[in-house]
Design goal:
With 328 residues, the protein is of the alpha/beta class. It is built from eleven helices and twelve strands. The longest helix has 13 residues. The structure holds iron/sulfur cluster (SF4).
Length: 328
């Protein structure tokens, strides 16, 4: 599954649901989202079939996302079926109810878990998620670490909101073997994005260099296809990273495709166009040609928004779904 720029696509992100038990302001539009009718959502059999087709095409890694994937009732069946495939299976969760799934995740070979947490401040957590679940999430992060999961914490930085917590969040990695990943705020439908609200990679590093001094900040080797630039404060148990899709896109080594909960293939996080796999599958027709066509149509950078000027244009960036229905 190689696109016209020679990028081999080996990583499929599957959004299992459009629903979530949090209401994060940069993900879920204030007015909510129009949910797809249940009949338009992939069943677990269809998820398994489509995933297997991608694996036969060369996918070696599958990440489950949402909305919040753990609120899907048949998640244990989905995990069981997908864990039978020869892939590295992982999940992104907001960790509000993850304590109920520790054994299920372990039994199905999940080792890497990404948790969304944008603040270590209970009140700010409530403000950005519109829910009062900070303690549960915090406790569950410690529980995941205690159970040996590889935990990455995704933090979307928003200027004037949580950018004053950058140091506290990196300090969190002093005694805890987790990776804090700072994410540049990205434009999606309904999230009121504004370049002025975004905290850039340079601003993050400037803040950290002035607090820790450059000699204490180790640059780590990034994994192939890595979306993040990785660092460690000398002698800290954990690490931190920056995902800079806005100021420093990493599309050259992109190996990612996305499947939405209603069976649409997105060849890029920012792509406005989608390919309908589910209707084709339900019509009993092969989906491989659709996948190939979508791959050949993939833009080099950010769904065609290859410059910051283009990314800033609302008519371009809001021509996409809201993040809640993509799954990051
Ligand atoms: S913006 Fe699109 S092309 Fe670039 S890394 Fe993300 S998914 Fe890949």
């Amino acid at each position: 599954m190689t696109d016209t720029f020679g990028r081999a696509h080996t990583y499929l992100r599957i959004s299992l649901t459009e629903r979530c038990n949090l209401r994060c302001t940069y993900c879920m539009p204030e007015e909510g989202v129009l949910l797809s009718p249940k009949s338009n959502l992939m069943t677990y059999e269809e998820i398994y079939y489509i995933a297997k087709t991608f694996v036969n095409q060369g996918v070696t890694k599958i990440r489950l996302t949402g909305g919040e994937p753990l609120i899907r009732k048949d998640i244990p069946i989905i995990l069981e079926k997908l864990s039978s495939l020869p892939v590295e299976l992982s999940i992104t969760t907001n960790a509000v109810i993850v304590e109920k799934f520790i054994d299920t995740l372990k039994v199905n070979g999940i080792q890497s878990i990404n948790v969304s947490l944008d603040s270590l401040d209970k009140e700010k957590f409530k403000q950005i998620t519109r829910r009062n679940d900070f303690e549960k999430v915090y406790k569950n992060i410690l529980l995941l670490v205690k159970n040996g999961f590889k935990v990455k914490i995704n933090t979307v930085l928003i200027k004037g909101f949580n950018d004053n917590e950058i140091i506290d969040l990196v300090q969190f990695t002093k005694d805890l073997p987790v990776t804090i990943r700072f994410i540049e705020f990205m434009p999606f439908d309904g999230n009121k994005w504004d370049m002025k609200k975004m905290v850039s990679y340079d601003e993050i590093m400037k803040k950290l260099n002035s607090f820790y001094s450059e000699k204490l900040i180790e640059r780590l080797e990034d994994a192939p296809n890595d979306t993040s630039k990785n660092y460690r404060i000398k002698d800290y148990k954990g690490t931190f990273a920056v995902i800079s899709s806005v100021t420093n896109p990493f599309c050259d080594s992109c190996n990612r495709l996305r499947l939405t909960a209603n069976g649409q293939l997105k060849n890029c996080l920012f792509s406005a166009t989608e390919s309908d796999l589910l209707t084709t599958l339900r019509a009993g027709k092969p989906i491989e040609p659709i996948i190939e066509k979508a791959l050949q149509a993939k833009f080099k950078v950010r769904g065609g928004m290859d410059t910051l000027e283009k990314l800033k244009q609302p008519k371009l960036h809001s021509n996409n779904r809201s993040m809640i229905t993509i799954g990051g």
